[in-house]
Structure formats: C-alpha cells, structure tokens
Amino acid sequence: MSEPRSFAYSLAQAEDGWRWRIYDEDGVTVADGSHPTQAAALAEVHTMLESAGVDLAA
Question: Is 19 in contact with 33 (CB distance < 8 Å)?
Fold first, then answer.
C-alpha cells in the first residue's frame, strides 16, 4: 500500500481575479488556473485536490 501524497496550494490576487496553484511534495506545480473570485478559485482548488484523492474532511 502506498503512502498518501501530500499537496500544497496557493491563492494570489491578480489584476483579473484570483490565481491558484497546486504543488506536489517536491514543490513542482501540478495544476494552476484563475477565476474572477476568490471563492471560485478556492472551489476549483478543492475540486482538483479531491480528484487527486485528497480527503479534505480530515
């Protein structure tokens, strides 16, 4: 059985809204995007993490 992978994310305000990035354990960007609102950006981060098998309820 493999160990669960760890991820980190960042949100940053930009001129056109909010940019987000997800990083793996080595600090490599594995996903990124932007949305007009902070809430939409955070929702997309959560969606991406859940699709990678991360349990956000823990």
Answer: yes
If you average pLDDT over residues 30-45, what whole number do you get?
Answer: 97
CB half-sphere exposure, 12, CA atoms < 13 A = 10
The model carries a pTM of 0.84
Distance in angstroms (rounded) separating the CA atoms of residues 24 and 15 = 26
3-class state of residue 2 by DSSP: coil
- C-beta separation of 14 from 35 below 8 A: no
42-to-1, 2, 21, 24, 48 alpha-carbon distances in Å: 30, 28, 10, 17, 10
Tell me the C-alpha distance between 55 and 45, whole Å: 13
Ordered domains of the chain (ranges, CATH): 8-51 (3.30.160)
